[in-house]
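[agent] plan:
  1. take the single chain provided in the ticket
  2. run structure prediction with default settings
  3. attach structure tokens to the ticket
  4. add a short note for the reviewer (M.T.)
[agent] executing step 1
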Amino acid sequence: MTDQHPQNNSQVKPDWYGDVPMDAKPLQTSMMKQFISIKSKVPDALLLFRMGDFYEIFLEDAKKAAHALELNLTARNKKDDTPIPMAGIPYHALNNYMERLCSMGFKVALAEQEVDPNNPKLMTRILTRVVTPGMPWDSDGTDSRGSCWIAAICGTRNTGVAFLDTRTGALRVTEVEGPIDGWEEIKRMGASEVIVDTRLLSNEIIHTDLQKLSHSSKEPTFFDIRHGRMALKKQLNVDDLTGFGADKLRAGLGAIGALISYARDMAMLNLTHVNNVHVYSVRSQMALDESSLRNLEVLQPLRGADKKHTLLGIVDKTRTSMGGRLLRQWLSAPLIDIKRISSRHDAVEALLSPDLREPIRESLRSVGDLERLGAKLAQEKINPRELLALANSIFSLPLIMDSLSKESVFEGFLPQELPIAIADEICEYLQEDPPTAISEGGIIRQGINKELDEYTELSTNAKAKIMEMEATLREETGITSLKIKYNRVFGYFIEVTKVHKDKAPDTWMRKQTLVNAERFITPELKEFEEKVLSSTEKMRTLEHTIYVELRARLTKSVKKIQDCAYRVAIIDVLSNFAEIAVQYRYARPSVNDSMKLDIKAGRHPVLEQMDFDEVFVPNDVCMDKETNFLMLTGPNMGGKSTVMRQVALIVLLAQVGSFVPADSATIGLCDKIFVRVGASDDLARGRSTFMVEMGETALILNRATSRSLIMLDEIGRGTSTFDGLAIAWAVSEAIHNKLSARTIFATHYHELTTLADQSEHMKNCHVAVAQDQHRVVFLRELREGSCGQSFGIQCAQLAGMPKSVIRRAGSILKNLEKSDAGVGHINQMSIFDIQVEEEKIVEIPSYLTELEQELNQVDPNELSPFEALKFVYELRSLIQKQQ
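[agent] step 2 finished; step 3 output follows
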């Protein structure tokens, strides 16, 4: 999805006209000219055009929306030669329809109506908002636990990358060495939309990836550094960026400027909630490429969409949406600063105490999404119910902060002042259960405004006043059946029966004569009616004014709210780590600057929580400077991939700041984790499974350092045996001899195990298996030494392969093992050979079939010992007779 579209001119008709000619008569009306004028500004968006109580959609947009939302597709000017396709949605249902359109990937533009100041009788429309995948419609239906980043990338050498979450106001920026590193960061952050420098479109990787991502390509001038610096200063309301660490940025400022311009000028967004910028370096965090995150299933599963069986799904027990978002960020960017890692571990250890942890986590349940509530307040979009939720959230903070203030590990971290005064003012003004909409009334408490109280009393107590007036008039006139009634035609009126009509005073004015009654009005009654009917409207208008003034005063405290939100999110994640440490029996790891990796009884954090028939088997793994390469062999399904993944996940969790699933773990700091497992192709780039594997392996060889952790599974399996073996051999040597990185290399090429005898720092190990004549038992234990077999045929048998195929495979395997020349000496078997062999295999003696039938008719539980012995003799006799 790009913004590159043909201009609306006489030569080229834009696609969004569809089959309707540009000069069609129905398009020449004032209203349709407004639509076309606005649509020309947002040609790639569905335009919702406000007309009264509906948002109307025209031309090709109407067809798209009708199909996507299952709307009735109609037409404007149906009787004309060229009717205009049209669909519509009620204005009060906008949130629901907007969420559905956004979830389908549509870009949506809103045009609201307003009175033309030059012609009060004419309604004009103005473009008020453009909703995109990266700048979504902010409603309760959006994923509150996930960030929604729009990214900008620019620069061919020094590359700037910036991210903005418009729902929370979070703004991040970094600079990297080249577009590929920048693009990797965009993928790691999971951006939903990208603004990209046109100079980068020539890069094949970026160009291909953009086909699957919403994006807008902009000329280099859109990323002007000077403009970016000015835009950021204006946004943060400062004259100097030194205090934010952004003064030395160059390409990063260009990316920030592009984001601000795009969000403010093109999407019409109010960015008053963007009050800070986080400048970071990718070198200050562990490098985790997209492939490794995917293979480890950190945030997303390899198959399907159920996140329950991902690392995030297992370790996320955060209480707040803010904590959930921060945990995602931490998991995708582990630390490489030992001091910071240790500080997080210290905090988690302090929170292991249930007396400290449990009250804090209980209080966190009452804390709403302070980040998004603060953002809505800054944008003055927060409704009364959300404002009250903000106040209640703030009231939950003192218990949390007071509890932690006694712990030395949190010294200097807790806020010096909580915005309690804000919460007090909100509760002073708002009713206990205010409505969502400002226009509904019933928002402001009694006693805040005297005039409002009078209107409220008159509006809510009108019935009591009527009864009081009714009683007074009955007493004055002596008409006991007198009633004051109301209808929409006459308003309030006095009704008396025919019997008493002569008792009506001369000052009453007859309004209507019925068969059995007369209806009158009085000046006093009409005056009361005017007050009652107008009081509700006046009450709502005055309430709206008071609420808007309150909201405007509170916006001055948004920074305090955002600061509290940041600290609460960290507390939530750390207490979450303590909770899972207790619940899952995690141990505190020791992270140091050595090259050691010593894990005792390590477990896979996800698999150990899954409901399998077998008990998860923990394993020890030990690597150091002397032995940094483990050549891992073993049967298919034996657990090689599990061991590799669990080692990588334990290291990741340790450097995130969590405790780990092991009895103990000593971890020498890792700067990068590379995990190459499984098989997948990339059809979009025309790359086969083998080519993807080779590309990922090349990335590892080019980027890994001696401090990296490398997990490689079955390198070279996607090509011929000898080619694959040669590649796997060469890759093993390159990692061992040049990189010296801690590595686990799983393979079925048993020839590679001889490398351990020739290599100083390599050791063979295998996952154990037990075998008898009929089956294979996977022990899941990691042991020293190599495994001589892969047991592939036995695994195929367990998978349900036809017995004929299993027997043939066993026969071929024996010939291969006997043959010195290998595969070339095995005769090609024809399809007819298979049929003949199957016929021989399936011949079963008839007496065995009869014997099986006899056995199936007997229930052993119902036989006495004597009957059972007698039955055995009968079966024996049957077999002897048949033979």
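[agent] step 4 note for reviewer: The chain has six domains: 15-131, 150-284, 318-446+550-584, 590-763, 802-841, 846-882.
[agent] ticket updated
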